[in-house]
């Protein structure tokens, strides 16, 4: 349980640091727009509930996939193909900035030695 709390703290700190970056903000807005537009599409075209449509959008963008749902209409299948290509790249871009924020927050907290710090430590020992 302690490990989970520490990992969650690192993730939230990384998100805080990532939100300071303009590129992360752009990716975040794009993901929100993708989720909203996908949810609206699947509720209207495929007759899914809002929760099911949002769940399908999130599992699709995160590349997990939804085992039980497959679009039934031709328009739904075409939209899903475009949604996967556009959304997956955008989602991975967002995740890369989250990872960058986590690494930066760990370096600022002193959790991770930078390459320069390791070099300085080796030079002192010689």
TrEMBL record:
**Gene3D superfamilies membership:** 1.10.287.70
Report the InterPro entries cross-referenced here.
Answer: 2pore_dom_K_chnl (IPR003280), K_chnl_dom (IPR013099)
Subcellular localization is given as: Membrane
Stated membrane topology is:
Multi-pass membrane protein
Q: Which residues form the Potassium channel domain?
A: 30-99
The membrane spanning regions, by residue number, are 21-42, 78-100
Q: What is this protein called?
A: Transporter
Superkingdom of the source? Bacteria
What's a single GO CC term here? plasma membrane
Q: Which UniProt keywords apply?
A: Ion channel, Ion transport, Membrane, Transmembrane, Transmembrane helix, Transport
Which PANTHER family has this protein been placed in?
Answer: IP11374P, POTASSIUM CHANNEL, SUBFAMILY K
Q: Identify the species of origin.
A: Paenibacillus rhizosphaerae
UniProt GO molecular function:
outward rectifier potassium channel activity; potassium ion leak channel activity
Q: What biological process terms from GO does the record include?
A: stabilization of membrane potential
Q: Which SUPFAM superfamilies match?
A: Voltage-gated potassium channels (SSF81324)
Q: Where is the signal peptide?
A: none
Q: Does the keyword Transmembrane helix apply?
A: yes
């Amino acid at each position: 349980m302690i490990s989970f709390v520490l990992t969650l703290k690192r993730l939230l700190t990384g998100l805080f640091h990532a939100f300071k970056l303009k590129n992360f903000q752009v990716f975040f807005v794009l993901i929100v727009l993708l989720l909203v537009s996908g949810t609206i599409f699947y509720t209207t075209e495929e007759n899914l509930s809002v929760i099911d449509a949002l769940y399908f959008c999130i599992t699709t963008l995160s590349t997990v996939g939804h085992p039980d749902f497959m679009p039934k209409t031709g328009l739904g299948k075409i939209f899903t193909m475009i949604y996967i290509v556009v959304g997956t790249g955008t989602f991975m871009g967002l995740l890369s900035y989250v990872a960058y924020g986590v690494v930066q927050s760990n370096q600022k907290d002193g959790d991770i030695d930078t390459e320069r710090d390791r070099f300085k430590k080796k030079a002192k020992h010689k």
